[in-house]
Write a structure and sequence with these properties.
Layout: H1 3-26, H2 31-45, H3 55-83, E1 88-92, E2 96-99, H4 102-109, H5 112-121, H6 126-130, E3 136-138, H7 142-156, E4 161-166, E5 174-178, E6 181-185, E7 198-199, E8 205-209, E9 212-217, E10 223-228, E11 231-243, E12 250-260, H8 266-270, H9 274-285, H10 302-324, H11 333-336, E13 337-342, H12 349-360, H13 365-375, E14 376-379, E15 390-392, H14 393-399, H15 401-417, H16 426-432, E16 435-436, E17 442-444, H17 445-451, E18 455-458, H18 461-471, H19 473-478, E19 483-485, H20 492-498, H21 501-511, H22 532-557, E20 566-571, H23 580-596, E21 605-610, H24 618-635, E22 644-649, H25 654-660, E23 666-669, H26 681-687, E24 691-694, H27 700-707, E25 713-714, H28 719-727, H29 732-738, H30 740-751, H31 763-770, H32 778-797, H33 799-811, H34 818-830
Parallel strand pairs: 1-4, 1-13, 4-12, 13-14, 14-18, 18-19, 20-21, 20-23, 21-22, 23-24, 24-25
Antiparallel strand pairs: 2-3, 5-6, 7-11, 8-11, 9-10, 11-12, 15-17, 16-17
Bound molecules: 2-deoxy-6-O-phosphono-alpha-D-glucopyranose.
The site of 2-deoxy-6-O-phosphono-alpha-D-glucopyranose has 9 residues, from α3.
Length: 841
């Protein structure tokens, strides 16, 4: 070692030692250190004294205190991953529906109770500060929230995991209700700043778009593609720490923001058109501006494909960069890197990794393809035909010409490999081609993702079975090990420990706190279901949670709920297949029964419905109006007093969900069988002691198995019967004509009973059911649904029995922890091992 080099190293070591001492001083976990840190942050970070500090300032100061403590663990974790050259798992997702971070981080670092006490000594209420934080609403619904739960579990299981996605400036819109209708408002979660994110300009990556491919031969005469005349943007990473539960692991969620390149406008700029040059800067930065607010329905816009490629390209380049810091060649790539594609949205990652390996690192095709197919795995989230993504070949050719070439080449080799199999015929090849010919040439992203992945997984047993039977039967026949099931799960930290502190405390008091990381320990509650005093306490907790929710509903909607009445709840995206409309039909039937004979309705209910509709989904928006129309009539009719209240809860989001699940008695999971891949809301309700009224769809099937059929209200056609009914030629009129109660309900809606006498407003809804084939079989399931609702009422009338059933539901939800799900991914798909983190080593 030369002398100057030795000096540099010695100096670095000195800084490292000094830094350790400084950090030790600053991030103490004891009460005086935290008190001091809070006051210091208020002063130095926020710049406020106790006279002018507002709640928001106190929130920022507290977030900074927590952040400091995370930072130490974060840096140590990332160092450790490099030291042991860990295999890393990358979760690529267009959506991460994270919600708020403060309470979750406080809980995970183990400071919640201390901080709450310290603040109350200062006269500050911790929950007031928690409410200051905007939800990180970077997702539409289940798919995005699943990604967030999985990050929590990866960190808690000490798995070296990363989330990669887009830092949308505008997340999912805010929903307000005006005259009963959904109105969308831009959601500006970053407006007041975000204390949890760190920009990392040192990791900027360039991304190319458009242009053309120039064939070249290199000095050794080999073909080399060059992608030129492109329009470039750069990706700027923003890192958010993801803390494991009390284990010192802190992983990273890296979200990309699109920025104009520094020479963005040189051409135009040189031509003297300064203003146009600046305008063009905006165009490239638009890529990460807004989340597409569609759930299970691709918009097919050029900007959406740009978003997909933008974040995928940034992420793949970053993954390769990180891998190459410790490796000289790509031989170990798939031993060190696992990439999970959350649905097909990031499937362009497959040709992108091929491009990087072939064009930038000059690997041969076979080696590059072998690496890809050992690296990628794909999670399918839907079977709905209209939700399967395809991109027009001509758009792909224009935006990503090199990728289109690579996709053609991948496809040619794939189809050739089918020769000699039962699918080597023209017919077989046409079915299995990555390029679909129907309705113009299109790239089928699900086929691309399946061809390029070593595993494909469905998200519940029934869903996986349907993938094998209907979506990808040929792939299943070719390789029986490729398609596997991993039933979704939810994190018990956010969805029980944080959201329901009262129930959590009660559980911990009874069975200890092991359940927070080993959810199956809840099983020990089973014996307490028969314990009278436990049941009484359980009911008390539920009632207190209902009071909290009732106050929110009153403030948001003006509707006064009766906390002794059943809270009958359906919250999720508004979609025809989820059948919020079926719920409304039941409410109208109940209303009619009350009007006919009030004493017949013995169980008082509050029916609560919440969820956003895609802004362009007209019929879903009309369903929201119908809920509000029905609520107006029902709530204002004196006959319903003490019997029925209906409210549409506006702006359903993660932070509101945390208040809703703990307060629910009945959870409605009533999708048409075969349509809902899994559901995760269903699990959160049951985990918080709500009973499920549901169809045999998605994970409901497994939930019913776990809790026992006697603790689950089942109704409706099975997936098989749904398919059969349709193929037999389904006739909704038959049900209308033969069921007078159903007829009265539909006639009332058609007549305008819930639209101020206007018969046209809800006509499209009635027409869909009666004249356009009732695609989701509401009328076929109506009677069975009402019968099940009757059983719900009977059960409710025996409160002891109901509470017993509710406790058993909680006790038997162990399977639905995201820790179990992520553990299965790690073992069966990623081959990922935990790396324990210690702050002292
Ligand atoms: C996080 C924490 C930070 C660390 C960085 C590593 O932002 O301390 O330096 O991750 O990122 P990579 O070098 O692994 O991308």
């Amino acid at each position: 070692m030369s002398k100057p080099q030795a000096e540099v190293l010695a100096a670095r070591e000195k800084i490292a030692q000094a830094q350790l001492r400084a950090v030790d001083n600053r991030t103490g976990m004891d009460v005086p250190s935290i008190q001091k840190a809070f006051l210091e942050h208020l002063f130095y970070t926020v710049g406020k004294d106790h006279h002018n500090a507002q709640r928001r300032d106190a929130y920022v100061a507290l977030a900074s205190v927590v952040r400091d403590r995370l930072m130490q663990r974060w840096i140590r974790t990332q160092q450790r991953y490099y030291e042991v050259d860990a295999k890393r798992t990358y979760y690529l997702s267009m959506e991460f529906l994270m919600g708020r971070a403060l309470a979750n981080n406080l809980i995970n670092v183990g400071l919640y109770d201390e901080v709450s006490k310290i603040l109350s000594d200062f006269g500050i209420n911790l929950t007031d500060l928690i409410e200051q934080e905007a939800d990180a609403g970077l997702g539409n619904g289940g798919l995005g929230r699943l990604a967030a739960c999985y990050l929590d579990s990866m960190a808690t299981l000490a798995l070296p995991g990363y989330g990669y996605g887009i830092r949308y400036e505008f997340g999912i819109f805010d929903q307000v209700i005006r005259n009963g209708a959904q109105v969308e408002r831009p959601e500006q979660w970053l407006r007041l700043g975000n204390p949890w994110e760190f920009s990392r300009p040192e990791y900027l990556v360039p991304v190319k778009l458009y242009g053309r491919v120039a064939p070249k031969t290199d000095s050794e005469g080999r073909y080399r593609a060059e992608w030129i005349d492109t329009q470039d943007v750069v990706g700027m990473p923003y890192d958010t720490p993801v803390a494991g539960f009390r284990n010192d692991t802190v992983n990273t969620l890296r979200l990309w923001r699109a920025r104009a390149t520094s020479e963005f406008d040189l051409g135009v700029f040189n031509a003297g058109d300064y203003l146009r040059a600046v305008e063009q800067k905006d165009v490239s930065e638009n890529i990460s501006k807004v989340l597409y607010p569609n759930d299970s329905y691709p918009e097919g816009k050029e900007l959406r494909l740009k978003q997909q490629y933008f974040f995928v390209s940034c992420s793949i380049q970053d993954i390769v960069r990180r891998y190459l810091t410790g490796h000289k060649n790509f031989d170990a790539f798939s031993d060190k890197v696992a990439i999970q594609l959350n649905d097909t949205h990031p499937a362009i990652a497959i040709p992108e990794l091929m491009r990087v390996l072939l064009d930038q690192h000059h690997l041969g095709w076979d080696q590059a393809w072998a690496i890809c197919s050992k690296t990628f795995a794909y999670t399918n989230h839907t079977l709905l035909a209209e939700a399967l993504e395809t991109w027009p070949v001509d758009l792909m050719e224009r935006l990503l010409p090199r990728h289109m070439q690579l996709i053609y080449e991948i496809n040619a080799r794939w189809l050739k490999s089918l020769e000699g199999t039962p699918f080597g015929t023209d017919e077989g090849k046409r079915k299995l081609s990555i390029i679909g010919e129907e309705g113009g040439k299109r790239v089928r992203m699900a086929v691309l993702a399946t061809v390029g992945s070593h595993h494909v997984n469905g998200v519940a047993a029934l869903h996986t079975q349907l993938i094998k039977q209907t979506l990808l039967p040929e792939f299943d026949a070719l390789d029986k090990k490729k398609i596997v099931n991993i039933t979704n799960g939810v994190t018990p930290r956010r969805w029980l420990l944080q959201a329901n502190p009262k129930l959590s405390a009660m559980i911990t008091k009874s069975i200890g706190e092991g359940w927070t990381t080993k959810l199956s320990e809840l099983k020990e509650l089973e014996k307490l279901a028969d314990d009278k005093s436990f049941r009484a306490e359980f009911k008390k907790v539920k009632k207190a949670n209902k009071e909290e929710l009732a106050a929110i509903v009153k403030a948001e909607t003006g509707v006064e709920l009766d906390v002794n009445a059943m809270f009958d709840v359906q919250v999720k995206r508004i979609h025809e297949y989820k059948r919020q409309l079926l719920n409304v039909l039941h409410v109208v039937a109940l209303y009619h029964r009350i009007k006919a004979n009030p004493s017949h309705v013995k169980v008082p209910r509050n029916v609560l419905i919440g969820g956003k509709s895609a802004p362009g989904y007209a019929i879903a928006k009309l369903i929201i109006r119908l809920v509000n129309g029905v609520a107006d009539v029902v709530n204002n009719d004196p006959a319903t007093r003490g019997k029925l209240r209906v409210a549409f809860i506006p702006n359903y989001r993660v932070s509101l969900a945390e208040k809703i699940f703990p307060a629910s008695d009945l959870s409605q999971q009533i999708s048409t069988a075969g349509k809902e891949a899994s559901g995760t809301g269903n699990m959160k309700f049951a985990l918080n002691g709500a009973l499920t009224l549901g169809t045999l769809d998605g994970a409901n099937v497994e939930m019913r198995e776990e809790v026992g059929p006697e603790n689950f209200f089942l109704f409706g056609l099975t997936a098989e019967q749904v398919a059969q009914t349709k193929s037999d030629g389904y006739d909704p009129w038959k049900h209308y004509e033969s069921d007078p109660e159903l007829r009265a309900v539909l006639d009332a809606i058609a007549r305008g009973d819930f639209s101020g006498g206007n018969p046209t407003l809800f006509q499209p809804i009635v027409d869909n059911l009666l004249r356009h084939g009732d695609e989701y079989l509401l009328l076929a399931d109506f009677r069975s649904y009402l019968d099940a609702q009757k059983k719900v009422e009977e059960a409710w009338l025996d409160q002891d029995k109901w509470t017993r059933m509710a406790i058993l539901n909680v006790a038997r939800m162990g399977k639905f922890s995201s820790d179990r799900a992520v553990g299965q991914y790690a073992e069966q798909i990623w081959d990922a091992k935990p790396v324990a983190i210690s702050l002292t080593k």
